[in-house]
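Deliverable D4.2, example record:
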Amino acid sequence: MTPLHDRVRRAIERDRLLPPGCRVLAAVSGGADSVAMLLLLRQLAPECGFSLAGIAHFNHRLRGSESDGDELFCRELAARIGVPVEVGSADVAALAHDGHLSIEVAARRARYAWFGDVAERLGAHHVATGHTQDDQAETFLLRVLRGAGSSGLGGIQPARGIFVRPLLDIRRRDLVEWLDKAGDRFRDDSTNRDLTIPRNWIRHQLLPSLAEHLNADMTAVLSRQALVLRDESTLLGQMAEQARLAVESSVDGGGIALDVARLGALPVAVARRVVRTALLRVNDSRFLGFDHVEQVLDLAAGGRFGAAADLPGIRVERNPSAVVLSRRESRGPDAPVSFSYSLPVPGRLVIPECGCVIETTEAGVGTSQVVHDKGINARNEAVVDSEAAVGGLWVRSRLPGDSVRPLGLGGRKKLQDVLVDMKVPRALRDRVPVVVDCRGRIVWVAGYVTGDEARVTDRTQTVVILKLRRLGES
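Output generated by the structure prediction step:
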């Protein structure tokens, strides 16, 4: 046995991944990581007391003859070492198109669902995958750049359900070196060199640059950081589960009500966990991120009775004592929408119904060049007298009878007429954010006109700067 065998064996024992007597199915793509894992597990099985149920290879049918070559390689590998092989396949591109998913997400869902079926059929207790320390570091950076919380930054788990990752302590280069010394072949996936794929850019561009300029052992540093955050996330999860029992209650139709007083009394880190868990329990088939959790917390903390928001697949409504989360069916882009949110000043508000963000800041007139340089009615920016924000600002969808006094026009117009004049398509008019003051007067039709009542005058001492940007814009 080599030092590499010892490191893998220690990881298996430390994390209790493969207890004596269990059967493990090796998920093998044909690449260096999974091939090395298969051979290491085969050699460690007698010493550790588990048995190898066989190989599972999934053909995603994305790379034509190259994908078929991977499948043939895995069949030949299984025959050479004398273990059973199971091969599955799916038209992942079609699955992605039909399910409105990325190729990566569709591939992962299809692959893992099939692995579970094979494990059950073969009587395997676990499925081992070849994720390495490099994968852990790449995942950590990918999630940092996408704004993940502590749960996501905990990275790849050594074990989740039936899936185990015995190579998370091992560098990819060590596995390749081990295979080369033993004369064992493996396949090279050409898509791993495609830098338009974010993970590949991190692997080939960002991580090498960080290692060169900051820390030569950056991969190990990031992997350790993921471990620390994973342990802290586990503790927070336990605290949130205890708090959840006192905060939430069930409502008709599979919804969940969160008591606003009890939710508000929790530490914010725990409250976020409680809200996120509730959102996922109501609808776990849609992406729900940090901004969605914050919207629920904002409605709980300052929402008026009757205020509501539509999150992906979920309706959130404020009643006198709770925020109620309920599942809603998907609707087309032309369907009418209704929303109402409190707009923090200063602060930032995500409006999912519009696919946009409104950011607010305060400044003194003498120090703000926005008024003079950009104009008070710039397309995606408005500067208004701070008096307009006294009592609070709100962002809502348009209402029947809305009217506005556009800055500089000297008269009042129906909002409907303003939107028609600005050539806003009918299907998008309900999705234009309307900023109003505490008296319901329109301060800004975001992206279009500023209300004259909120104009900056010679008496203005401070201003509120409002900026509109689309989600995904920097």
